[in-house]
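task queued by scheduler; priority normal; single chain, no ligands, no partner chains; default sampling; output format set to structure tokens
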Amino acid sequence: MGRYVVRRLLQMIPVFIGATLLIFLMVNVMGDPIAGLCGERQCDAATAAQLKKEFGLDKPVWQQYLTYMGNVFTGDFGTAFNGQKVTELMSTAFPVTIRLTIVAILFEIVIGITLGVITGLRRGRPVDTSVLLTTLVVISVPTFVTGLLLQLLLGVEWGWIKPSVSTEATFGELIVPGLVLASVSLAYVTRLTRTSIAENR
């Protein structure tokens, strides 16, 4: 068991390096970061050169990547376009993320297991078929599509919820986002629970 854990941890190293390198190269290939800093108006040559030197963009790509990784390991994630530190933005969003995660996990456990038990006990019946078809649709549709549709229908068209979450992000406001976040995992939990119940009857 110990060797397995060590082996898996060692395998994370090349995966981490490969993922960060791929993302870093994609950001460099997709466009000029300096153009984004200057906004709609194009930077003059002197300003662009100064900004490139300030952010180290005048160095080779491999050296930029090493600098980036060094900053990541020291906890320096840089600043956003508005000048605020990324760590400050993360600390602001972290409590909301925790609350959203709690809501999503509760949906997965309560709804997923409940539907799985019901369908497992009624295997082959209409309720079983309906739940299986519903979970298949949920798994097939991307969560960003589901979230957008629920936002438009429940928030804009019908007015049942607020179209967007406030800065306080109370648990009540996170019910629909939590359901969307948990939808795919909930569908898998339902199917796995159904299979376990049906096989052990």
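post-processing summary
- Helices lie at 2-30, 33-38, 45-54, 61-73, 86-121, 126-140, 143-157, 175-199.
- The chain has two domains: 2-76, 89-199.
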